[in-house]
Amino acid sequence: MAIPKSISEQLSVEEQPKSAVLPRSISLIKALTLPVIFIVLVEILVRNGVIEPYLLPAPSSLFQSFTELAEGDLWQHIWTSSWRVFLGFGIGSGLGLIFAILVGLNRHAEDFLEPTFSAIKSIPSLAWIPLLLLWLGIDESSKITLIAIGAFFPTYTNTVAAIQGVDRKLIEVAKVYRLKYWQQVQQIVLPAASPGILTGLRNSLSLSWMFMIAAELIATTQGIGYLLSDGRETSRPDIVIIAIILLAVLGKITDSIMKLFETRLLRWRDVIRNS
Fold first, then answer.
1. Which residues in the chain show pLDDT less than 70?
2. What kind of membrane protein is this, topologically (predicted)?
3. CA atoms of 119 and 270, how far apart (whole Å)
């Protein structure tokens, strides 16, 4: 017996949200399984004296410590670290894009710049700190510069690889349509390389948070890196753990925003795949 069209449509509409919600719920449960097990295990071990509280506090006690910090200047620390990261990321990734496009499109520029950039890329972040202190002092410029250095190379490396990896057949098609050089770059090369470029930007943003910690070890009195240092010096593991959790949360939030931005910009890939 055939089901009337109106009833079948109603069933499909009602079933769609359920079918979409269920996989998301299962994924969320899977994602939370390990953190919940770890938190419960640590709580049990600390409460039973297996782990000393001065080494690792019970997770249940962290809420009170967080409340005390929130009533103080915690939000100022978060704001200070965030604007340092975003400013350093903007400067470093912006310069990385400029030099990467130059190197990716010009073989002569690659011969001049690539060996130097490859050598500088191998320098650890902490090695820059003494030099930046000598050059720029202990103010904000040295911290922003260090973060910018960390953001530069992932963007530069991924963008160069993405541009040089563009299918040559696309360039040949552009020449058939008699597109000028900069039209080829704008309409063919950069759009084709955009997935690699956006991956480099995401990596740069993640690395900016890591370099921020190193930067805030440079004689600072504000920021999440300062909380880490202060917690160590005052033997407060709760403050150290809260600072680490804040870094994880902020890093995840910013990466999710970048991922959303990437998905929106690369919607054309889904159109091509579904066509």
1. 1-21, 268-275
2. Multi-pass membrane protein
3. 38
